[in-house]
Design a protein that fits this description.
Layout lengths: L2 E8 L3 H4 L3 H7 L8 H12 L18 H11 L4 E6 L8 H21 L4 E6 L11 E3 L6 E3 L20 H12 L5 H6 L4 H12 L6 E4 L5 H14 L1 H17 L12 E8 L2 E6 L4 H10 L4 E3 L1 H11 L2 E6 L1 H8 L2 H7 L5 E4 L3 E5 H6 L15 H12 L2 H20 L4 H24 L2 H14 L11 H8 L1 H13 L4 E7 L1
Parallel strand pairs: 2-3, 2-10, 3-6, 10-11, 12-13
Antiparallel strand pairs: 1-13, 4-5, 7-8, 7-9
Helix pairs in contact: 5-21, 9-11, 9-12, 10-14, 16-19, 17-18, 20-21
Length: 502
């Protein structure tokens, strides 16, 4: 399997990567990028910090792959890490989950060479997350078929990593995945997994067996004991954190960045865990009392999106974080928090971003209205109409004729009425669309082909969000994933790459 570059586009993280240096330093005190000077500076910072690497219960590693256990031992021996992660999603989630892990592996290897020290890639499974609708379904873009997981009557707020399947559900989902992505290990991994977190861990071990990838789940017993000091800081300095976060959110918005965090006035950035359910903590009347309660019972508390990164860095010596656009949006709001707490986080690195097309799809795309140097139309219908306009140029001539007649009509009326002009133009557009759809009914095979093309290209050609890793593997073969991994090892991750697989 070989990959040929077709085009480069702006990265999904471009709004953050393209900031001026002065704004970057304000919103990202830890820095963006992996230049040698920044990595060396961060490594020196880590040498002056104390980290409490989690002590995991006996037996928890028994089911891990040998490579996962070996990577964990390297961290326990003091190796710094390049961290990435995702909440556990049915079927391993969209392809960008794989890309995050591959990006962390590539960045850790580059850092090891630059710094002359052992750097370990670490994937953080956010099993504490409790947004069930976001993780309970998965689909195949070509067939349009989807799978929805049924969990055994879990109360709202239950961490998704701890959710048990309903009776027979693991087997049913495994059969569905075997059907959708035949020839892959998706079905067998699903059937043998006790829950979403285990399924994601086993999937990562399957995809990266020899990469030295460490995998942890924030919900594992013993993990929160390592986060406790960070949780206590957020409790003690609740007001300071709230003020700094509000200022950070405002600063990000002032620079035109999309803001995804909310200030949560009167509430903390922590959850209480009672009966296995997470509940947001209100602002404490006695911050020190809450801090002591956390230190005495760390298993009873959990983090949110704003405090999670600080919890991770309390436990692990994080050299850098490989982030997607949503996570960049979080971190951009945390710059003031980092300064107020005196706890700078690791370098922010964009995850790899790319579209890989089969050779036959790449050959069809330009004739179907997709130009590789630009985003494709914003919907399947738009792509379909663009394709039909190219196949039927007579409709364009008809449109020009109607436009000319409209201008003559308005001129004869002596009317410059913009509203009337807009109304007539909209009617012409509807008539042209109808003509094109009539043409489509005469060539259903062509329309099926264009819909398949759309499935590959995805919204804005970012099919990393629309495809699962298993679907990529089923359609292009395991060799495609290996080829992408080799490409990522050398590729500049500040742009989005469009490549053809052959």
């Amino acid at each position: 399997m070989t990959l040929r570059e077709l085009a480069r586009r702006p990265h999904p993280c471009a709004p953050w990567l393209d900031l001026t240096d002065s704004v970057k330093s304000e919103l990202f005190p830890g820095g963006i990028g992996e230049d040698p000077a920044s990595l060396l500076l961060r490594l020196e910072e880590l040498r002056g910090r104390e980290h409490q690497v989690p002590e995991l219960p006996c037996g928890i590693m028994d089911s891990w792959a040998p490579g996962t256990r070996a990577a964990w031992e390297r961290i326990r021996a003091g190796a710094p890490v390049v961290m990435t992660g995702q909440q556990p999603v049915l079927g391993g989630g969209p392809w960008f989950v794989w890309l995050k892990a591959a990006g962390a592996i590539a960045s850790a290897r580059r850092a090891s060479k630059l710094l002359g020290v052992d750097v370990v890639p670490l994937f953080w499974i956010a099993g504490d997350d409790s947004d069930l609708p976001e993780v309970a379904s998965i689909g195949d873009p070509l067939s349009g078929e989807s799978l929805q997981a049924d969990f055994a009557s879990a109360p709202e707020g239950t961490p998704v990593g701890a959710l048990p399947w309903a009776d027979g559900e693991a087997s049913r989902l495994g059969e569905g995945m075997s059907r959708l992505w035949s020839g892959t290990a998706a079905g067998s991994i699903q059937r043998g997994a006790a829950g979403l977190s285990e399924a994601l861990r086993r999937s990562l071990e399957h995809w990266f067996p020899d990469a030295g990838l460490a995998i942890v789940d924030a919900a594992w017993p013993g993990m929160r004991a390592s986060f406790a000091r960070s949780y206590a800081v957020f409790a003690r300095h609740h007001e300071t954190v709230s003020q700094a976060l509000a200022q950070g959110i405002e600063a990000a918005a002032d620079n035109g960045l999309p803001v995804t965090l909310k200030a949560l006035e009167g509430r903390t950035r922590l959850f209480a865990l009672e009966g296995g359910v997470r509940t947001r903590l209100e602002a404490p009347a006695d911050p020190e009392a809450l801090a002591q309660a956390i230190l005495g019972n760390p298993e009873g508390y959990s983090h949110d999106a704003a405090s999670r990164i600080f919890a991770a860095e309390c436990a692990f010596p994080v050299l850098a974080h490989v982030l997607g656009p949503g996570e960049f949006a979080y971190v951009a709001c945390l710059g003031r928090v980092q300064d107020r707490l005196g706890k700078r986080i690791g370098l922010a690195l964009p995850r790899p971003s790319l579209t890989v097309l089969p050779a036959e799809v790449a050959a069809r795309a330009p004739g179907a209205g997709h130009e590789f140097d630009r985003k494709c139309p914003a919907s399947p219908r738009s792509l379909e109409l663009e394709f039909l306009r190219r196949r039927h140029p007579e409709t364009a001539a008809l449109g020009r004729f109607w436009q000319d007649m409209r201008h003559r009509y308005l001129e004869a009326l002596g009317s410059g009425d913009a509203a009337l002009n807009h109304k007539l133009a909209a009617r012409e557009e509807r008539l042209l669309r109808r003509r094109l759809l009539d043409k489509a009914s005469e060539s259903p095979e062509e329309i099926l082909g264009i819909r398949e093309l759309w499935a590959w290209l995805g919204a804005g050609a970012l099919q990393e969000r629309g495809w699962t890793t298993w679907a990529i593997e089923a359609q292009l073969g395991r060799g495609a994933l290996d080829a992408v991994g080799e490409l990522i090892a050398e590729f500049d991750n500040s742009c989005h790459l469009v490549a053809e697989a052959s």
